[in-house]
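Class prep. Sample record?

___
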Amino acid sequence: MTGQVFEFEHGYAHDLRGMPMAVREKLDRTGIRASRKQWQALPLPERQALLEMPCATHAESQLWRGKLVELLKAFSDVPVEETTPVDPTLWVMPHHCPSEIAAQCALKKVPVPSQAQWGTLTPLQRFSLLKLSRSERQNRDFLPAMKEFGLA
């Protein structure tokens, strides 16, 4: 499901105005930072194509990265910012729930997902919770995501 937009994202990502978690995961995986302004500078069909493009294997990641860089150079006046790609092990491997999620659960007063629950989530769901839990403040989408994923 490469083109998934979650229910909790519908206020900003259903029309691709904002970046869905599926795109954020690809950005982290490929080591590219893109602002909302850069994302919105891309034509809607190009944003949709980036959402739909697979990015799970090394070869797919390289193709996705190349396409994004090409588009950002063509449609945005902001230089492409590169960073170290994030190791996807935390969300791809379903072994244990990361401590950042436990901390956010404590702030929201919801139970921490068990190892069994964590293991049943898709990698994109795990990525989303991890991304939402890393906010300095209480993230407004964390609890809706937990509910959507059947965890709260």
